[in-house]
Amino acid sequence: MAYFGVRIFLAGAILTVSACSFTEDSLWPSLTGESPAASTAPAQASKPAASSQARSSAPVARQTPGSAQSVIVAANPPPLGTSNFQPSGVTPGQATGTFVGKKAIEMRGELKRLQASISTHNSQLQALRGKIVANSQRYHGTIAAVNARLQVGTTPGNPILVQQFNSAQADLDRIAADITDMNTLAGRVSNNSTMSSYLSESARASFAVSGAVDEDHRQLAILEDEVNRTDVLISRLLKEVANDVRRQTNYVATERANLNLVSAAIRTGEIFGGSLANKALASATAGRNINVAARPSDVSGKRPLVVIRFDRNKVPYQQALYHAISRVLESRPAAVFDLVAVAPSSGGAARVALNSNKSRRHAEEVLRALIEMGLPPARVAVSAKTMANAKSNEVHVYLR
User: Fold this and answer.
1) What is the pLDDT of residue 294?
2) I want to staple 132 with a disulfide (CB 3.0 to 4.6 A). Which of 46, 51, 81, 228 is the partner?
3) Backbone angles phi, psi at 370, to 5 degrees
4) Of the candidates 325, 373, 376, which has an alpha carbon nearest to the alpha carbon of residue 30?
5) Three-class SS of residue 339?
6) pLDDT at position 270, please?
């Protein structure tokens, strides 16, 4: 099992933080000066079917012929992932009567249970995607009806539009709830990743146990391959869920601001332009798509702003990380950061590969935390490297 620890280095000082568990529903102050992301939308977001969605996520103001008014157009949500994650199964083995043979039987049973858990999580993911698509389509249909009525003009506080607005708001709340469920699912998948790493290490260590016969080693080799394939499947599942959550969280936050604009238009019976909050966000990100991560840069020779060392379980890095990033943004509002997953380069190729995989998952976890704190994905670039002097898996945060 992996144990994690953290030591945060900030402005030449070392901050040691006490252990505490990570709370997914924590309310974080926004790192961009806007309302906290957790207060405007849960940590997940929604998407309709990929075939009917555009990549743009910012509301659009459209001029109508013969009129100076603009139509408030709901942002097209980014597409959801489409992969179906089904494990390939476990090859049966035969009892050899040796101690190693018994361990192989136990590990096969654990791998079967792990794959069953992955199948369950895959089914939950597909169901959540279906709910998000349905809720998004209903939301966009309602907003389109409101826009059509406002475009031709109506009375202030039109009760029909008020009812439609309430319906759209309820649909967006349901999308936000789906996002919360997807974020919870990501946590369960992460637990599967820990179990997969444990099985991989156990299978590798069993080769060194004395008293085994050739058949034991043959079965262990097959088992190790299947564990590795399962580990790759978990990594792909975790990455796709994280991408869905990241993009949809930003989409829902944008639509919250857009709904405020619709509410004001209904109260006056007149339609307004695009949200000022969205314009400010677009300006802060220098025209970059807030759903697209920044490109990694060369950090060689640079001193990291933050170092998170994962050498024990449940590292309480979030508060120190928030203060470090927040302090930078106070003086440099348009700052961009590099998030680097660092793995030890010692221990052979297999060990380096395993540690690199773990460090990348830690980096994805830190990225999710930053996004939940309100930092746009366009402000963070993620990369990975190995270091000879690293004693454990680490995540470094650099300021460009």
Assistant:
1) 64
2) 46
3) -65, -40
4) 373
5) strand
6) 64
Total count of residues recorded for the chain: 400
51 Cβ neighbours under 8 A, 6+ residues apart: none
> Tokens in use for 236?
């792909």
Alpha helix (H) residue ranges in the chain: 37-40, 99-152, 159-206, 214-268, 276-284, 318-331, 348-372
HSE on the CB side for 182, CA within 13 Å?
36
Among residues 179, 85, 75, the alpha carbon closest in space to that of 129 is found at 179
Nearest to 45 by CA among 175, 188, 181: 175
Q: What is the pLDDT of residues 261-297, one digit of tens each?
A: 788 778 777 665 444 333 334 444 444 455 555 677 8
Cβ–Cβ < 8 Å for 381, 339: yes
Q: Tokens 């008020």 identify what position?
A: 162
Name all domains of the chain by residue range, CATH numbers in brackets.
1-30+293-400 (3.30.1330)
Angle between helices 159-206 and 348-372 (to 10 degrees): 160
- What does the pLDDT look like over 306-336, one tens digit per residue? 999 998 888 888 878 888 888 888 888 888 9
Spans of the chain, pLDDT less than 70: 1-78, 270-294, 372
Residue in this structure with the two tokens 């959540």, named with its chain if needed:
128
Alpha carbons 351 and 8: distance in angstroms, whole number: 25
Residues 6+ away with beta carbon under 8 Å from 279 = none
The per-residue pLDDT for 306 is: 92
- Asked if 32 contacts 161 with a C-beta cutoff of 8 angstroms, the reply is no
Compute the Cα dihedral for 274, 276, 278, 279 and give only its sign.
positive
Tokens of 373: 């704190």
Beta bridge partners of 387: 344
Amino acid symbol at 62: R
Its pTM stands at 0.52
The one-character DSSP state at 71 is E
Which residue, 2, 4, 89, is CA-closest to 312?
A: 4
Which residues lie below 8 Å from residue 243, measured CB to CB, with a gap of 6+? Answer: 81
